[in-house]
Amino acid sequence: MKKALSLLILVFLFSGIFADTTCNTSYTEELNIRALDANSRPMPDVTITLRYQLSESTGKGYVTTIPKPTGSDGIAKIKIQNLENQIDKLKCDITITAEYDGKEIKKTVYAGSHESLIDLNIPAYNLILTIKDQNNQKVNGATVSVGNFTKYTNNAGMVGFSVVSGEKLVLASYEGAKREAIIPVTKDTTYDISFYVSNLTINVIDDQGRPLSAAAEFFGKTYNSTLGKIIISDVGVISPDINVICNGITKTPKINLDISNEYTVIFDTTSPELISIKDQRTDKSTSLILTIIDPGSNPSGINENTLAVNYDYGNGWKYAKIFPKGSGVYIAEMDPINFDTIVFFSIYVEDKEGNTITIPGQYEIFTTILPNENGNPTDPEKPDWLSELFFTLILPLLLIAAILFGAFYAYLKFIKKEE
């Protein structure tokens, strides 16, 4: 009898260690969760989920409820049922998660021992916005978005949001006009947004500063330039997305009408120029050194991805390897080519706005001595210019002089003999 009693006590003690006895097996609970903001005001539309044990012995473990939003009173009622029937496997913990405006708040309670109304505090505040038109009159029916929330202003031009603390991007639109503002929220905040309008001037010029014919697209309308100027009246957007089109190229300037209402858009219309070509030779390669510029006061720059050099020195056309050297200098590396060989080439250059030049031509690789990759001079077989000069010019002159001298000597001797 004593052994049986001792065994029963041990079982009870171990059950107390490994089991949570704040709830009963297969319990059913209904939780009332209330979401409160930073000032303890009830918050509607807060998403609530519960994570709790369904059944350990059947392998189902923990489950999460379907998200449920709080009502106008800030309360969400959620009923759960545990199916675990073994006391040693029973778990009574319930994790509550409240999610709002990207912020999550968690709280753990236990079945059978929690408050009848469980409060969760979210660091949120009221953001009250007043929307006004260009005449400073309050606007009814303006669309206002803050994060994932969108509402409409009332007859007083006002709309309210409950938002988590931090910087908030506010977007407002009314009759095609748009406004945006970044508002820091660390407490209950009021803010006015005005739909004042501005006239926008866009100057369109080329890289030489000359006015261009162009067009601008804004809110489905097209505005054409006059003497390089595009004027768009009554723009109600602080940073409008405007496409400026010229010669098939589209640019979207960054505009902020709070800073300025006149902007300049530059299009590069001048083709690049090839300034010079030089050859460079080692015992392992022959290269053309190209100096290329993109002229103009506002050039777009050389498009190095499309720069190409084709060459032929008698073995068919090939592509040279292009290496930028800086300051508009590029090296076109070719095969080793013998001295005094004429290389035919075609150079294609394009700037970043599509202006191109194609330069065909020929270049003679002259006899030169350039250092090889070991730093030693590469001395090709070269003619002895002194020997050539002696045999082609000096020796014939000496022979002529000898003949003339002999003739003169014979003449003198003949005359003397006659005398």
Write the layout of secondary structure elements.
Blueprint (H helix, E strand, L loop, with lengths): L1 H17 L9 E9 L10 E9 L5 E4 L3 E2 L5 E7 L11 E8 L2 E8 L7 E4 L2 E9 L10 E4 L2 E4 L5 E7 L1 E9 L2 E9 L3 E6 L3 E9 L8 E4 L2 E4 L4 E7 L7 E4 L2 E3 L10 E6 L5 E9 L4 E8 L14 E5 L5 E2 L1 E6 L2 E6 L6 E10 L5 E10 L19 H34 L1
Parallel strand pairs: 1-8, 9-15, 16-22
Antiparallel strand pairs: 1-5, 2-3, 2-4, 2-6, 6-7, 9-12, 10-11, 10-13, 13-14, 16-19, 17-18, 17-20, 20-21, 23-24, 24-28, 25-26, 25-29, 27-28, 29-30
Describe the model.
- The chain has 419 residues and is mainly beta.
- It has four domains: 120 residues, Carboxypeptidase-like, regulatory domain (Immunoglobulin-like, Sandwich); 71 residues, Immunoglobulin-like, CATH 2.60.40.1120; 70 residues, Carboxypeptidase-like, regulatory domain (Immunoglobulin-like), CATH 2.60.40; 93 residues, Immunoglobulins (Immunoglobulin-like).
- 12% of the residues lie in helices and 46% in strands.
- The protein contains two helices and 30 strands.
- Strands 2, 3, 4, 6 and 7 form a five-stranded antiparallel β-sheet that branches. Strands 11-10-13-14 form a four-stranded antiparallel β-sheet, with no helix packed on it. It has a four-stranded antiparallel β-sheet with strand order 18-17-20-21, with no helix packed on it.
- Strand 23 and strand 24 form a beta hairpin.
- It is elongated, with a radius of gyration of 45 Å.
- The N terminus is likely disordered.
